[in-house]
Amino acid sequence: MKILILGAGQVGGTLAENLANEANDITIIDSDGARLRELQDRLDIRTVQGEASYPTALRQAGAEDADMVIAVTNSDETNMVACQVAKLLYKTPTTICRVRANAYLSKAELFYQRDQKKDLDSLRGFPIDVLISPEHLVTKHITRLIENPGALQVLEFSKGLTQLVALRATKGGPLVGHELSYLRTHMPKIDTRVAAIFRKDRAIMPEGKTVIEDGDEVFFIAAGDHIKSVMSELQPLVKPYKRIFICGGGNIGQRLASTLESRYQVKLLERNHDRCVMLSEKLRKTVILEGNAANKDILLEENIENTDVFCAVTNDDEANIMASLLAKRLGARKVLTLINNPDYVDLIQGGDIDVAISPQQTTIGSLLTHVRRGDVVNVHSLRRGAAEAIEAIAHGDHRSSKVVGKRLDEITLPAGTTIGAIVRRNEVLIAHDHIRVQPDDHVILFMVDKTRIREVEKLFQVGLTFF
């Protein structure tokens, strides 16, 4: 695919890295020449220095024959206008736009949706095919972690019918120290599949005789209503969370408090007085506190030792890290920390900070969903981009498809790839060798080695006989 990426920041750069490694034709537009040179030195991509929304810059980047424009600059307005210019002047088939401000997102009529099949000549609003809101994605990500105590990552497929969960196996979990085959004996009525195990950052492809060890990072897939039962096998049962403390009242903090306040006791700490006044008017049940999270006295006064989850979601990585470390030291049960700099994520996760959340990785997965070939409806980037989970729809018949009509043990998968489950007409079928893939099945795959993605995509592309 020929793809134009507008904006060479963290998201644009990470996305370019992901896509360039998969033999796409990538061009990045940005006004920062030094940043473009740095990317060009590392990646096999073209760069154009200029304003991303200017017709001249888009034309110079090759917008006239581009398959897709992905606008991820730091300016919502630039992103929206760039998509409009690309669509109206250069008839770009697919435009993807990152929009942060809720003032725009709350007005659906500003954007036409692709499924409305409107004629370009009669368009009203910005011609954007796919809207991406990092704040919305991060809020959903944090909410799922709070709803599933003990999880490191919770990913949904087929509208939540099935979930892929990552957690740290802990001594005291019934399965820890046993072979995986023991799970079936111990829980005969619960069907699940372990998709991958990472031990000291080394991937292990799970088999029946694989023994789960204390400290293993285990990825398993199960129907949504079986998740908690399987989690209880891998770590001692964690009590449901009740008290949530949010540090930072920006877009993410506000959205998170609004999502959680009806089910949890939520406190939100914000240092800006005017923002506190606005939050107290917008939020109904959340207790709004004015002050600095690095102030030990404020945290002690608010009984931080009784807090179940401390979420640091300000725009400042260092402030988030310091506030999280202080909260943990003072007794907070679990600490979730928003980290924008990807180099920090590996440094801090797993110590005093339980989960480091990278907005870039959360956003990248959502963007990749629209870039993948074949009918891919969900992509999740895992382990800082090294692994990937995808949901692909099987089309065709036994003559035109490499998967339809075949038993799972007859499908030749690339090394390091496993099929975790199939969703068929709203029924979750955990992967077993005897299951045959049928047309329109949603197949959920886990890839330890993301560089094999092209081979997986080819499996789900329909041959000419289908037409």
Automatic annotation (TrEMBL):
GO cellular component: plasma membrane
Keywords, ordered alphabetically: Ion transport, NAD, Potassium, Potassium transport, Transport
Signal peptide extent: none
Pfam families the UniProt entry points to: TrkA_C, TrkA_N
InterPro entries membership: K_uptake_TrkA, NAD(P)-bd_dom_sf, RCK_C, RCK_C_sf, RCK_N, Trk_Ktr_HKT_K-transport
Entry GO MF terms: potassium ion transmembrane transporter activity
Domain RCK C-terminal: 152-236, 377-462
Domain of life: Bacteria
Domain RCK N-terminal as annotated: residue spans: 1-132, 241-357
PANTHER family recorded: POTASSIUM CHANNEL PROTEIN 2-RELATED-RELATED, TRK SYSTEM POTASSIUM UPTAKE PROTEIN TRKA
Name of the featured protein: Trk system potassium uptake protein TrkA
Organism for this UniProt entry: Marinobacter subterrani
Lineage: Bacteria, Pseudomonadati, Pseudomonadota, Gammaproteobacteria, Pseudomonadales
